[in-house]
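Annotated sample (chain length 177).
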Amino acid sequence: MFRGRIPKFNWAIDHRKSFKALHVRVRPLVATGSPLSLDELANEPEYLGPEQWETELNEIKNSGKQPLLIDMRNNYEFRIGRFEGAVCPDVDTFREEMAVVRDLCKDQPKHAPIHMYCTGGIRCSVAGAILKSEGYTNVKTLQGGVIAYGKHVRAQKTGKSIFHGKNFTFDKRLGEE
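Output written by the structure step:
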């Protein structure tokens, strides 16, 4: 039933030992406050690789427009690092976040671009699938999240980044550049 639906594991940028041991627990997929069917989750957003993400956001910005760019991480993650022009629902959990995201999108035409990102790509994939299920047709997410973007920036070796600050990590490091 889950064949082809489990995302690729996303390794951190900083490889210092961050957890004492690996524990795998079977739990419901990201808590949204309401049950989700596999059919809803199959309605995936468009995934943009880090280079394409950066290019598209820069093109929108250079055209004088401001994209609807939603940070799907928690507010404390947003405070230590974010993409330029991003908005973050002022909530502590993903369960609370979807109501705020719907409110941010309610005045958008159903075909207007909505860009979303998160730490590793899971929360924004779920949120993007929910929005697409609700009729929004142009939902785009950063494939692999901030972690993938950080790897892209490091590989470029130019030091140029549209993400400013640190990426929050849920371990003893509490963040990585």
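Annotation: Strands lie at 46-48, 68-71, 81-83, 114-117, 139-142, 163-165.
Annotation: The two ends are 37 Å apart (CA to CA).
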